[in-house]
Amino acid sequence: MSTSGSENRPNIVFIMSDDHAAHAISAYGSVINETPQIDRIANEGARFDNCFCTNSICAPSRATILTGVHSHLNGVLTLADDIDGRQDTFPKRLQGAGYQTAIFGKWHLGHGGNADPTGFDRWAVLPDQGLYHDPEFFVMGERTRFEGYVTDLITDFSLDWLKERDRDRPFMLAVHHKAPHRPWEPDEKHMGMYEDIDIPLPPTFDDDYENRSNAAKNAKMRIESDLNFTDVKADVPEGLSPAERKNWLYQRYIKDYLRCVASIDDNVGRVLDYLDAEGLADDTVIIYTSDQGFFLGDHGWYDKRFMYEESLRMPFVMRYPREIPAGSVVDAMVTNVDFAPTFLDYAGQPPADRMQGASFRRIAAGEEPPADWPTAMYYRYWMHLAHHHVPAHYGIRTARYKLIYYYGEALGTTESIDEPTPPEWELFDLEKDPMEMHSVYTDPEYAGVVRELTDELYRLKEHYGDER
User: Fold this and answer.
1) What pLDDT, on the 0 to 100 scale, is given for residue 4?
2) Extended beta strands in 399-456, E state
3) How many CB atoms within 10 Å of residue 140?
4) Closest Cα partner for 333 from 383, 287, 379, 394?
């Protein structure tokens, strides 16, 4: 057995990408790409089929993962909010329990003062979004430029730290990739992928946004009108019909997106190979996830923010051979609020009193969820109308239904646009309408469901202390 981890205190390698949708991972049945290295984690561990974020945007999701509390409590409601690093976080608790800790890659929670990473012995993080090629990093606060491709560099830093670690203590390593965030810039190795094929269009590619809220109609993330030259890196050819133009834009976007994913997958393989070569695999919990989902042409969109499935759903695969059955699938609902308590559980540490989630360690090991395990999750997007004209909204998702309320107010949140939009409700029956094409909120047959879910929505809102 490795001296840097034990059956009771395993190492933790937490790999997270940015905007990597579950339906662009072959372990989740992707029809547009293959991810053999990420699939290794799923095949040798567990795939979570109902993992969701509580605020589908980069910085808030990351703050929730660190703190184990919803956005309204950790203070990072929008992209423009910096984290207050004086808060209790799972890395601080692991560090206090004797773990070596490090983070390399995307941070996106502010820089300087209380916003710098805390709870990490070593860190090198990108300024804001960072660059794909020859990026700068803040290395323990000192801004330094490196030559190379960002996904490779993040992995290089991570492997170098592992090689230099104290082998007598367990470690927690956060490998947080920038990719495949917009603008999608592949590396040279993967630039020729998909060159001679067309990526299949999603079934909802030509969504007309009828039978739903005006929020969907008014969002500015449409393939045909909102992608720009920086996104597709070429002028649209002349003489195309509207359908041909839209398809051309989609192919330019999605191929570069998938090329960026391919680089991530290769680098996940590098980490897995190192753990195997060093005899660390049995003593290490390894996770691959993304900070939220992403629209891959679904509903004719790119980006995220909405509570619709493609944006809400997070990929989450986890391997720990000592506990997790290989090739298992977890159906229980988990959210990013649950990550911190779970990581701490593996380290034998209790969660902070303020943490709002619960450990799913036993569920990952194949046990049935406890009787009090949540059967509904609470979501809130605060960044009213900024960037992509998506109204502020909150909602609830159960196994079968999703209720969304677009309250449409900025409420003084940072960078939101102070222009109220009319309140709207949506209800989706995910069993009959998994692609969320038809709201049944006003259907008399669902009146009882509306009442029940509305009551539960406001119960959860109160339960989590969201008073705004």
Assistant:
1) 45
2) 401-406, 424-429
3) 14
4) 379
| Overall average pLDDT of the 325-336 stretch | 98
Instruction: Look up residue 11 and give its amino acid.
Output: N
In the DSSP assignment, the letter for residue 112 is S
Q: Are 57 and 292 in contact (CB under 8 A)?
A: yes
Asked if 65 and 316 count as a contact pair (C-beta separation under 8 A), the reply is: no
Cα within 13 Å of Cα(124), Cβ side: 20
Which residue type, as a one-letter code, is found at position 24? A
Whether the predicted pLDDT of 1 surpasses 90: no
| Calpha distance 340→64 (Å, rounded) | 9
The helix or strand, by DSSP H or E, that contains position 335, with its residue range, turns out to be: strand 334-335
pLDDT of residue 431: 98
Structural domain boundaries in the chain: 11-187+251-375, 377-463
Tokens describing residue 383: 């960044």
| pLDDT reading at 363 higher than 80 | yes
- Distance (Å, whole) CA 458 – CA 451: 11
Topology (CATH) of 377-463 = Arylsulfatase, C-terminal domain (3.30.1120)
Kindly report the CATH class assigned to 11-187+251-375.
alpha beta
Q: Average pLDDT over the chain, rounded to whole?
A: 97
Angstrom distance (rounded) from CA 285 to CA 282: 8
Asked if 175 and 17 count as a contact pair (C-beta separation under 8 A), the reply is no
DSSP character at residue 236: P
Q: How confident is the model at residue 8 (pLDDT cuts 50, 70, 90)?
A: confident
